[in-house]
Every structure is written in structure tokens, then in C-alpha cells.
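Workshop exercise sheet. Pairs work together: one partner reads the sequence aloud, the other fills in the structure field after running the prediction. Swap roles for the next sheet.
Pair: D.N. / O.F.
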Amino acid sequence: MTWLVVHCKARSEDLAQENLRRQGYEVFLPQLRQRKRRQNRWQWVTGPLFPRYLFVNVALGEQDTATIRSTVGVVTLVRFGQALVPMPDAVIDYLRRCEDPALGARSDSDWPHRPGDVVEILQGPFAGLTGIYQVPKDADRAAILVDLLGRRNTVLVEREALGDVVTPATA
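Structure field:
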């Protein structure tokens, strides 16, 4: 069995993956979860690690690649000249190990803020205040130290409610 690289139509990776699976192929579409700003809000968006590309496992010589090329959502198989480009199993294994199994669980390293950063709170009951980023409490909230009622208080703020860093932490 050989992993081949499939070039898909724009934003049709999921469609191509589904149709190839229906035909009995083993398909791998590495996904990436990243924060993007949309409509002035930070959101988590999951999309392909390699836009317009996925991998399909084929028994060359036994299976005809024409069925892959004619699949809805697929443009062609990647080639160097006339030769199909095989992807080493080690690369596929590495990509699978790096991919988050839950595809939704985030680690502390995914937070764009570091302890000590001065951040602005954009939404919620503390909107308009600035505070000092302390630590992430869970996947969706962080502890922020704010001046409130004449004292410094630690408040939990939704991740999406935090703005950009106003003053970076000094190392």
C-alpha cells in the first residue's frame, strides 16, 4: 500500500474525503485547529493542515487511480512528470501523531498570551478594563488580575473576550 497526495478543489477537502471513503479508500486529511479573528471576535476554526490536499492509501498495480481522479471534489493526483508522488509512511505516521486526537482540546501553549501580559477585556461584565494575564484556567477561560473597586482582583474571563496584548510581559 502506498500513500498518494490528492489535489482537491478549493474548500472541497471534506467532500473529497467523504467520497473517497465511500469508494473504500483509506483517506487521511490532517486537520489544524487555530484561532482566527472573525467579526472582531477570536474564534477557534478547524481546517485542513494543507489546504486543497489530502492523502489516500492505494495498492498501486491492484487499484486503478482513475477512480480517484474522477471522484467529486478531487482535481488530480500529484505527480512529478508522469510519476505519481508517493508519501512515505513515516511522514503520514508523524502527521497522525502530531494531530490532536480530540481535535478540540487545547493546551496552554495555544494561548496567545503569556503570564504578565497586559491585555484588554473586550466582552462580558469586565469589558473595557485592562488586566494582567495570569494563567489559563481551562480550555476556554483565563485568570486575569484587574483593578476593581480599589483592589486587585482575579477574575475569570472567557478566552474569546480577551483582546490583543496591550503591553507584553518582560522576560
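Discussion prompt: The CA atoms of residues 97 and 124 lie 37 Å apart. What would you look at next?
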